[in-house]
Design goal:
With 519 residues, the chain is mainly alpha-helical. It has helices at residues 59-70, 73-84, 89-111, 113-117, 121-129, 135-168, 182-200, 203-232, 252-272, 274-277, 283-316, 323-327, 333-354, 357-366, 373-386, 396-425, 450-464, 492-509, and strands at 19-21, 29-31, 176-177, 180-181. The radius of gyration is 23 Å and the shape is globular.
């Protein structure tokens, strides 16, 4: 049968036979048999909608995905970065918890299109940016993911190097290549190859990996807590340390940019979460799974990091925020091996899910005829190494204020446009076939929707135009790139999302969108 959902005014009606609705209770839509788009410029097997019978991910699958992604070394180090900026542990955990409750909202809003239409993020972006214009947000998201992939892979390689060096000894004294021991480069390359081997096997392999990786890593973190508590005979003085900022005038200038940085940590997934929810059995599965998996897990993990670090201070006389360095202090071979496996699984779990899946789809969207999901994943792996982004984590200021702040501002701008188009303009109703069809309602002008581009440019300038750095601690001028926008820089993600959303709605409602003949 044809689609029973009314089209979004004032766009033309859905072409008969192009799409069919699933069971009334599910609200899921798929392409009708015999109406699969085959234009190689805009479609390949990886970008086409997932058939309803293959949308099988349950609440547990989504919760496990988030548990697996949240339990990683950079997540563990978030609290330490905030404490290094002067917060006490309660302020740090509160900041992280609030940020993840806030970022959950756009995550659920953009994730809605996945179970309903079975489409990935770059295809969803075609509805607002146009069939060609969707490459703009897709490539921005891909570039961010490549940088994160490099960061996570390097961290994982260093973790393996440290723990294997403790087991076998002598690794740190190996001959150096490029300023690092060749054994470290070996760990890095082997870890990189393992990640690409897993993702090469496809999304079903990823789902199965996350299902067992999530509880394993959670158990590993709890074991680390119990071990430290037993050695410490309780927890150290860290929990009693007062805030260097208090709750007054010194706290808020650090809190708000830190909050935006914590939001930015997962703002990448708030865009491309349809890459995963497209496999969902329904809206209830993705809503419950994400709500159970993200804010609770991140808050719990932040608490674990604080408690374990406190215990390390009591045992060793120094606060060891890096779990790899803490595990390396033990002389128990079993403990070292268990820690090594836990670090490996935790890092692989987040990296292939958060930082390879999205750019693989994004790059496939750029040239579907030549780039498949697997080819995009390989390109991501290469770029993630070439750009050497691990330097971004050298200081808390550079990591939280510069890297996360800048990324959050730009990605918040894209999220605002996606939410405005899908929820406010179209009321969640899309013409599924036209998302792949030149000349359809999402073709706009030569494949570009100028309204989305203008909203992105304006929102991006407002969000990151005032970016500034303390003298000697970052790449931006102290007065900001655009001085009069400096007051907005501390709220980059929120400013980008709100401004682009409002501007896109205003521009769209002033004109009627009609299909244009392709050129």
């Amino acid at each position: 049968m044809t689609a029973t959902v009314p089209p979004t005014p004032p766009t033309p009606p859905v072409s008969p036979g192009d799409a069919i609705s699933g069971p009334a209770a599910s609200g899921r839509v798929e392409l009708a048999h015999g109406h699969v788009p085959d234009d190689p410029r805009f479609a390949n097997d990886d970008l086409l909608p997932v058939p309803v019978e293959r949308r099988t991910w349950t609440t547990y699958n989504f919760a496990a995905l988030w548990i697996g992604m949240a339990h990683n070394i950079p997540s563990w180090l978030l609290a330490s970065g905030l404490v290094a900026l002067g917060m006490d542990w309660k302020q740090a955990v509160f900041t992280i918890a609030l940020a993840n409750v806030i970022v959950l909202a756009p995550m659920l809003l953009t994730g809605h299109a996945g179970p309903k239409y079975g489409i990935p993020f770059p295809v969803l972006a075609r509805a607002s940016f146009g069939l060609r214009g969707a490459n703009l947000p897709a490539l921005i998201r891909a570039a961010v993911a490549c940088a994160w992939f490099g960061i996570q892979t390097w961290i994982g390689g260093v973790g393996i190097f440290t723990l294997l060096g403790k087991i076998f000894g002598g690794w740190a004294g190996a001959a150096e290549i490029g300023g690092q021991p060749w054994t470290l480069w070996l760990c890095f390359v082997l870890f990189w190859a393992l990640e690409l081997a897993i993702i090469h096997r496809g999304m079903d392999t990823l789902r199965r990996f996350e299902n067992w990786a999530a509880p394993f890593v959670l158990v590993g973190a709890v074991v680390l807590l119990v071990w430290v508590a037993a050695k410490a005979g309780g927890f150290g003085p860290l929990l009693d340390q007062p805030s260097a900022l208090g709750w007054g005038a010194d706290f808020w200038p650090v809190f708000f940019p830190s909050l935006m940085g914590m939001i930015a940590f997962w703002s990448t997934l708030s865009l491309n979460i349809p890459d995963f929810t497209r496999f969902g059995a329904g809206q209830r599965a993705q809503i419950r799974g994400q709500s159970l998996g993200l804010p609770t897990t991140m808050t719990f993990f932040a608490l674990l990091s604080v408690f374990v670090t406190s215990g390390s201070q009591a045992v060793y006389g120094v606060a060891l925020w890096d779990p790899v360095q803490l595990v390396a202090r033990t002389d128990n071979v079993f403990g070292l091996v268990f820690g090594l496996v836990t670090v490996l699984i935790a890092t692989v779990s987040v990296n292939i899910a958060a930082n390879v899946v999205s750019p693989a789809y994004d790059l496939a969207n750029l040239a579907p005829r030549f780039i498949s999901f697997r080819t995009g994943a390989l390109i991501t792996g290469v770029l993630g190494v070439v750009i050497m982004p691990w330097k971004l984590t050298e200081t808390p200021e550079l990591y939280i204020f510069t890297w996360l702040g800048l990324v959050g501002g730009l990605l918040g701008t894209v999220a605002g446009i996606l939410i405005a188009d899908y929820w406010i303009i179209r009321r969640t109703v899309l013409d599924l076939a036209d998302l792949y069809r030149p000349g359809g309602r999402y073709w706009y002008r030569s494949g570009w929707n100028w309204r989305a581009v203008v909203a992105f440019a304006a929102g991006g300038v407002l969000a990151v135009g005032g970016s500034h750095s303390a003298p000697g601690k970052g790449p931006f001028p102290a007065d900001g790139l655009i001085p009069f926008l400096k007051p907005l820089a501390d709220y980059g993600w929120a400013v980008g999302l709100a401004s682009s959303l409002l501007l896109y709605v205003a521009l769209t409602r002033r004109s009627t969108t009609r299909p244009v003949t392709p050129v």
